[in-house]
Amino acid sequence: MKRKKTLAVVGMTCAIGVGSVGVVQAQRDAEPEELPTGYTVQPLGGEQTIDIGDVPPQVLHTADQAAKTADLTNAQVDFDDIEAVYEITGEGIEIDVKTNGKLEEIEENLGSRREAREAIPRPVRQLLRRQLPGFSPEDFERSTRPTEVGLLRVFYEFDGTRDGEELDVEVNARGTVYTVEPASLQRPAPGTEVPEGE
User: Fold this and answer.
1) Can you tell me the distance from the alpha carbon of 186 to that of 169, in angstroms, rounded to the nearest whole number?
2) What's the pLDDT score for residue 66?
3) Please, what's the b/e burial string for 130-146 (b: 16 or more CB within 10 A of its CB; e: otherwise)?
4) pLDDT tens across 133-173, in order?
5) CATH topology of domain 110-185
6) HEC profile for 117-174?
7) Is residue 126 helix, strand or coil?
8) Are 143 and 95 in contact (CB under 8 A)?
9) What global pTM score does this model have?
10) Going by DSSP bridges, is the β-strand pair 72-78/93-98 parallel, antiparallel, or unpaired?
């Protein structure tokens, strides 16, 4: 038997354009409110831990295939995006799968500094030295994400510090594209600078 969710409107924004639809933010366990025609409910934010046995079969199948030999032991549902995402974890791995069974991301912990150094491609290490001198990564992850046409893109994610400031850095496997949080530290990647006056 399905339980009925109770939602309440707490805010509203409208997208202007042809066939525009309003988005209504919802709040858990509040009095339900009827929505005007053309409005949709935005998903509830946050995460909820669930038993691995309660993961839908299509989601668990995708996660098992992506995990290869890793044992998947924990699960939670992330409600922060438009569509809920299941985060299935095992030792050193997290696999994110949409409710329809489509793979969103595989995150692998690369271990200690020494182990990570061997696993991180040389172009990635070179880009970090060139673009973020003095950056000291403390957490190393490899992120594999499918494209719309089924190809896989690999990124390396780092949490660390530089001059006492915490940074989140992401670099593609070829060492040609990277992002930094906070964004104020982002500089153009090598070979992408636009000459002044253009």
Assistant:
1) 10
2) 94
3) ebbeebebeebbbbbee
4) 999 998 999 999 999 888 999 999 999 999 999 999 999 99
5) Nuclear Transport Factor 2; Chain: A, (3.10.450)
6) HHHCCHHHHHHHHHHCCCCEEEEEEEEEEECCCCCEEEEEEEEEEECCEEEEEEEECC
7) helix
8) no
9) 0.70
10) unpaired
Read off the tokens for 47: 């995460």
Helices (H), the chain: 57-67, 113-119, 122-131
- Residue-level length of the chain: 198
Spatial separation of the C-alpha atoms in residues 155 and 178, rounded to whole Å: 9
Domain with CATH 3.10.450 in the chain: 110-185
The tokens 């699960």 sit on which residue? 75
Backbone angles phi, psi at 77, to 5 degrees: -110, 130
Position of tokens 């989140």? 168
CA distance 148 to 162: 35
How many whole angstroms separate alpha carbon 116 and alpha carbon 57?
Answer: 33
Instruction: Dig out the tokens for 9 from the structure.
Output: 């409107």
How confident is the prediction for the chain on average, in pLDDT? 80
Distances (CA, A) of 55 to 19, 99, 102, 151: 35, 9, 14, 26
Residue with tokens 């549902």: 77
21-69 pLDDT per residue, tens: 444 445 555 555 566 666 655 556 788 999 999 999 999 999 999 998 8
CA distance 139 to 115: 12
